[in-house]
Structure formats: structure tokens, C-alpha cells
Amino acid sequence: MNVIALVKDGERYVFLYDDRSVPQLLQTLGRYAADPELNFTWYDAAVLSQKVRRLQTDTQSDVPQKFRRSA
Description:
The chain is α+β, with helices and mostly antiparallel strands. It has helices at 22-34, 42-62, and strands spanning 2-8, 11-17. A two-stranded antiparallel ribbon has the order 1-2. Strand 1 and strand 2 (11-17) form a beta hairpin. The longest helix is centred in the C-terminal third of the chain and has 21 residues, at 42-62.
């Protein structure tokens, strides 16, 4: 389980997601940014999207390779 959050002008946006739900999270960030009722901008969505992708890349690089071929 992963958590990413944004606190902005007294509002809190907290997103819980697992590795399989990243595409849905990115869509949600876009929907929030497009909603004029929310104080959540496209910039906010872009920053959080970058963090999600970076965390995903960092997590994948931490996984040891199970099989290595030797030359």
C-alpha cells in the first residue's frame, strides 16, 4: 500500500493506492485538476504524478533480480 498526499491552503488530499492501481490514480489526479470546485490544479496533478512514477521506478529497482545469466 502506498500513500501520497498534498496539503494546500488548509485542504488535504490523501491518496492510497497499490502498484496495480497507478493508472486509476493518475486518472483521478486529472479529474481532480479538471474540477473547478476543487483547489487542486494541473500543476498539483503533475507534481504528484511525477512522485508516483518516481516511487514506482524506485520500488522496481529495489526488487532483486531472481535470475541472472552468466557469460
